[in-house]
């Protein structure tokens, strides 16, 4: 188990007797789950959280830290930063590595003693917030000492439940506060409505409707405690609002059994306790009864839920057995852990779920039962996250993801697939219709449990929805014009790639007319490429390129999305051969790639662009448009240059520390990039059923595939000095091409690399040895 300790180890031992926490040693952990460090990415630009979550769990029970008036900003997108000294409380929903803030539903905080403040307070005014010490975390578990109330707090989570355990100081009264006002991003009028009540059996239930990134969003809860209540009060802190039987904010005990309003906080009293207090919380997107049923669906106390979740994590992570030096093993297993958090379960235990139409639906799609998932950051995750899940998760889970996307299209008021969705609601964030490559990739790989013909209809409906993001102009002109639509250059090339994946699936299904139509659209990327400058550029309606033109400029709402011409000029992953011809051939392509990585940024200020981090020249690893670029040397016949660049990226962008991610993890994409790269191959063009071979960063990896086959990667002689691939064999036979197919991996077998100190400039250099390109290579 990886432990990160902040301070006061003596206090930890005194307050939580019986909690088994193994110290970090120099030996490699024996189980995959013990190699995970949830604190990686919780500082710097990673935006991850350290709290408790089960694989793809609906509940992410994690601390929210005090950051004063800047709480709503970009750096606190996960509600937490490792360096913050103060905790506000523990809320039940969080994003892992997103570039936008939201969630933080139903904040719980313990208070001890006779005085119970209802506000968090700040540096000048006391409140229920507390300084922290002795923070530890592992997969499915988090603990911290709250030094102000003297409480040891522990968290664990199941799929739809979160369980708190609090050890209060001996002889002091124990209280829990439930704050329904708190949200990670402080939107104006953020809480549209909320409610709370005590049911006759003592179960606490309630809900809130939130104005936020996805709005309006509804969420419900149910809570049961391990000790009986000795008292409670429900209070509205909304100004100038009084309720019948209520004396006003902060004026004596409140004994109402229910309350509704826009600013509610609840206090639960337990007297003095002789053992830790447990609070079990279930969530639902449907209703309070659904939350109660979700509570019942996962029986057991804190230790039972923790043990079950630990086993679930070990099984999920164990799909890849990794042998590597401890720092790399920690990096890769933590990356795998981060890759298995989303998309999160959204349907209740009985199968019901709330859709983007705000209606409740059953867990069926065209007669097929499935578990609804939400939290799709598709502009990020189509690249490597979802392709990774097709290899390491059961077919049924991958079918759930695809069926959830198609169900989202069927219940969308606009009839299109999700773009960036969470809590069943659409945010319309980012560009493209990247549910399309996720669906196509799964269908082309033969994932069972998907009606691919019906899915193709949903894909085409999204691609033909003219009001979305300039698609009407794109279909008419062959590009998105910048005088009609912002970020037009990026949209043109991303639409073209998505269209290619539609064509690929249509071909497989025998729909020739659809295939031909979208194959034509897949070449529209050319219409925004300026061969004179060698860059992708935005064009106006009259066909001219917009001027002035600066390929290094990054401005939101400009020609590009979270990037500039340097990154986006490489985004035609389905037709790199076509791009290379426009650039003047392999030699000029390699020179341009080198110019990108070696660019001198000393006179450029990107501080205004939050998402721009992890720069190596104009390569920006902290954001997704660059993620495939290092592999493009292999497309140009120089795979040893890919190997050099991968070493440069891994060494500079990942480390096993809180600031160990160079950019937002983006719900697993940054992490999935590392997992694939560590294994020695990467899906540059999902939908091609090919992976481009790079170089491994682990000594050995044994993958258990969804079909039960085992695929092993071995790196003989791997070291810092031996950074180049000398030879590759597949099942004992020389592999002379620079890619491996999905079918070859799923058949099982062994991919063996022989590493050496000098580059092999003859391996996989010929045109026939290069990865897929839609229009081939050469003149």
From TrEMBL:
**Where does the record place the Glycosyl hydrolase family 92 N-terminal domain?**
36-284
Read off the InterPro entries from this record.
6-hairpin_glycosidase_sf, GH-type_carb-bd, GH92_a_mannosidase_put, GH92_N, Glyco_hydro_92, PNGase
- In this protein, which residues make up the domain named Glycosyl hydrolase family? 291-756
Share an example GO biological-process annotation for this protein: carbohydrate metabolic process
Instruction: Specify the domain of life of the species encoding this protein.
Output: Bacteria
Checking Gene3D superfamilies in the record gives:
2.70.98.10, alpha-1,2-mannosidase, alpha-1,2-mannosidases domains, GH92 mannosidase domain
Q: Which GO terms describe its molecular function?
A: carbohydrate binding; peptide-N4-(N-acetyl-beta-glucosaminyl)asparagine amidase activity
* Record Pfam families: Glyco_hydro_92, Glyco_hydro_92N
Would you tell me the Gene Ontology cellular component terms? cytosol
Supply the NCBIfam families for this chain: aman2_put
- Name recorded for this polypeptide: Alpha-1,2-mannosidase
In its UniProt entry, the species of origin is given as: Sphingobium yanoikuyae ATCC 51230
């Amino acid at each position: 188990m990886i432990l990160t300790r902040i301070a006061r180890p003596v206090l930890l031992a005194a307050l939580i007797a019986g909690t088994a926490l193994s110290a970090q040693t120099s030996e490699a952990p024996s189980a995959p789950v013990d190699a995970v460090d949830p604190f990686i990415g919780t500082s710097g630009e990673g935006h991850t959280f350290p709290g408790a979550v089960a694989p793809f769990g609906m509940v992410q029970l994690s601390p929210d830290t005090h950051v004063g008036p800047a709480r709503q900003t970009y750096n606190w997108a996960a509600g937490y930063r490792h360096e913050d000294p103060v905790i506000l409380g523990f809320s039940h929903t969080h994003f892992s590595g997103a570039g936008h803030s939201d969630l933080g539903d139903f904040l719980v905080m313990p208070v001890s003693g006779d005085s119970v403040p209802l506000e968090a307070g700040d540096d000048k005014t006391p409140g229920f917030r507390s300084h922290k010490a002795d923070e530890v975390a592992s997969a499915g578990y988090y603990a911290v000492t709250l030094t102000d109330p003297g409480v040891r707090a522990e968290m664990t989570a199941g799929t739809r439940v979160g369980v708190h355990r609090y050890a209060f100081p001996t002889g002091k009264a124990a209280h829990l506060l439930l704050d329904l006002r708190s949200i990670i991003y402080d939107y104006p009028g953020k809480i549209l409505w909320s409610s709370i009540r005590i049911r006759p059996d003592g179960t606490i239930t309630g809900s809130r409707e939130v104005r936020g990134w996805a709005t309006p969003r509804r969420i419900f809860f149910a809570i049961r405690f391990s000790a009986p209540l000795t008292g409670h009060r429900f209070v509205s802190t909304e100004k100038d609002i009084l309720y019948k039987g209520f004396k006003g904010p902060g004026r004596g005990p409140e004994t109402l059994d229910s309350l509704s309003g826009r600013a509610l906080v609840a206090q639960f009293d337990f007297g003095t306790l002789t053992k830790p207090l447990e609070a079990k919380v279930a969530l639902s997107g449907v209703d309070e009864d659904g939350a109660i049923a979700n509570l019942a669906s996962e029986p057991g106390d804190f230790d039972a839920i923790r043990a079950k979740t630990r086993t679930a994590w070990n099984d999920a992570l164990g799909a890849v057995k990794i042998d590597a030096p401890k720092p790399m093993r920690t990096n890769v297993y933590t990356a795998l852990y981060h890759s298995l958090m989303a998309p999160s379960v959204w349907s209740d235990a009985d199968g019901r779920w709330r859709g983007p139409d705000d209606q409740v639906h059953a867990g069926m799609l065209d007669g097929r039962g499935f578990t609804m998932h939400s939290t799709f950051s598709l502009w990020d995750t189509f690249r490597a996250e979802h392709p990774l899940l097709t290899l390491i998760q059961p077919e049924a889970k991958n079918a759930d993801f695809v069926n959830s996307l198609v169900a989202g299209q069927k219940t969308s008021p606009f009839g299109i697939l999700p773009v960036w969705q969470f809590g069943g609601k659409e945010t319309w964030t980012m560009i493209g219709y990247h549910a399309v490559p996720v669906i196509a990739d799964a269908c082309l790989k033969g994932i069972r449990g998907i009606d691919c013909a019906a899915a193709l209809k949903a894909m085409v409906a999204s691609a033909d929805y003219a009001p979305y993001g300039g698609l009407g102009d794109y279909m008419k002109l062959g590009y998105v014009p910048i005088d009609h639509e912002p970020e037009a250059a990026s949209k043109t090339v991303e639409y073209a790639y998505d269209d290619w994946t539609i064509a690929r699936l249509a071909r497989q299904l025998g729909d020739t007319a659809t295939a031909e139509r979208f194959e034509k659209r897949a070449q529209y990327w050319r219409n925004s490429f300026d061969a004179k400058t060698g860059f992708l550029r935005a064009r106006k309606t009259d066909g001219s390129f917009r001027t002035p033109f600066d390929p290094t400029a990054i401005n939101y709402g400009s020609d590009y999305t979270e990037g500039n011409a340097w990154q986006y000029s490489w985004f035609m992953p389905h037709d790199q051969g076509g791009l290379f011809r426009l650039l003047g051939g392999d030699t000029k392509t390699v020179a341009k790639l080198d110019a990108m990585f070696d660019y001198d940024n000393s006179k450029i200020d990107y501080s205004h662009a939050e998402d721009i981090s992890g720069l190596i020249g104009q390569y920006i690893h902290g954001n997704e448009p660059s993620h495939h670029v290092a592999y493009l040397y292999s497309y140009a016949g120089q795979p040893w240059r890919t190997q050099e660049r991968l070493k440069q990226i891994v060494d500079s962008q990942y480390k096993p520390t809180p600031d160990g991610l160079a950019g937002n993890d983006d719900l697993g994409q940054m992490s999935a990039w590392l997992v694939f790269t560590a294994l020695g191959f990467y899906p540059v063009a999902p939908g091609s059923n090919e992976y481009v071979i790079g170089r491994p960063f682990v000594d050995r990896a044994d993958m258990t595939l969804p079909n039960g086959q085992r695929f092993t990667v071995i790196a003989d002689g791997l070291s810092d000095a031996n950074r180049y691939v000398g030879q590759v064999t597949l099942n004992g036979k020389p592999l002379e091409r620079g890619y491996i197919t999905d079918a070859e991996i799923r058949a099982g077998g062994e991919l063996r690399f022989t590493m050496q100190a000098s580059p092999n400039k003859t391996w996989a250099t010929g045109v026939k040895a290069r990865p897929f390109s839609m229009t081939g290579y050469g003149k």
